[in-house]
Design goal:
It is built from 7 helices and 10 strands. It is of the alpha/beta class. It has a single domain, classed as Rossmann fold (3-Layer(aba) Sandwich), CATH 3.40.50. The strands form 2 sheets. It has an 8-stranded mixed sheet, with helices on both faces. Helix 1 links the parallel strand 1 and strand 2.
Length: 264
């Protein structure tokens, strides 16, 4: 259940562009408070405070997130939502052609950083008056393997499993933190540029993605952001479940979505 008496507070990663930027703008448009972690400079504008943080650095994440949580005006906020959006597709290519530094950085941003942020958010959950929710942005690649995307697929698959595990850990608590993971589909973000720069040897399905982009088949980040927020507000996300926005429909003017089957 959401708290409508006070504005919600959203903590969002990766707000400089793509889905994260669209999410930030939509959150502010709806009159909520936004706290973000990104590589942009520390800034404070009306309703939005950004903390500069490189998610490849666990120590910087710890410092920035603790500071962020301490500076939220908890008494003035209702629900609290952590939205783990930031992610990287690179390096692309067969495992043996990737260097260890690139592997470590990819897993750090896509898996370890969300894990660390979720831990800190749950530790601070009692400070919030309303419901506490975590939404992890996952990918269809977490359920379906792609040659050349081994690191990305592995991180997203692990994030899905971690989502389910945390939901089980929270079950039965008096004020549980709820958590879900949402795959947005193929979106027009900078990840598409990474696909364009790759070659067919490193990513054999590259041409299919290029054709999708050329045919106008990519989703707009703004549409994805609005739909995720609408589904959350409508109470459609159940704790421990994984969702794919391509399965969302509308009924009586409201968005509805069904969780994916574990082996589906």
């Amino acid at each position: 259940m959401t708290n409508h008496k006070r504005p919600s507070v959203y903590i969002v990663t990766g707000t400089t562009r793509g889905i994260g930027r669209a999410m930030a703008e939509e959150i502010l448009r709806r009159g909520h408070r936004l706290f973000s972690l990104s590589r942009a400079p520390d800034t404070v504008t009306q309703g939005w405070r950004n903390y500069r943080c490189d998610l490849r650095d666990a120590e910087k994440i710890q410092v920035a997130m603790i500071r962020l949580l301490d500076e939220i005006p908890h008494e003035a906020c209702g629900d609290a939502i952590l939205l783990n959006n930031a992610g990287v597709l690179t390096p692309i290519g067969p495992l043996e052609r990737n260097d260890w530094a690139g592997m470590a950085a990819a897993l750090q941003v896509n898996l370890m950083a969300p894990m660390q942020l979720m831990s800190l958010f749950i530790q601070a959950a009692a400070r919030f008056q309303g419901s506490r929710r975590i939404i992890n942005i996952t990918s269809g690649a977490g359920r379906h393997p792609y040659a050349g995307w081994g690191l990305y697929c592995t991180a997203k698959s692990a994030l899905n499993m971690l989502t389910r595990c945390i939901a089980l850990e929270q079950r039965g608590r008096s004020r549980p933190v709820t958590i879900c993971a949402v795959a947005p589909g193929v979106v027009a973000t900078d990840m598409q540029a990474d696909i364009h720069r790759a070659d067919d040897i490193d990513f054999p399905e590259r041409q299919r993605f290029l054709r999708l982009a050329e045919s106008g088949g990519l989703l707009a980040p703004e549409d994805v952001a609005r739909l995720i927020l609408d589904l959350d507000l409508a109470g459609q996300f159940q704790s421990g479940q994984i969702y794919d926005l391509r399965h969302a429909t509308w009924s009586e003017g409201r968005p509805v979505i069904t969780a994916l089957k574990e082996n589906g």
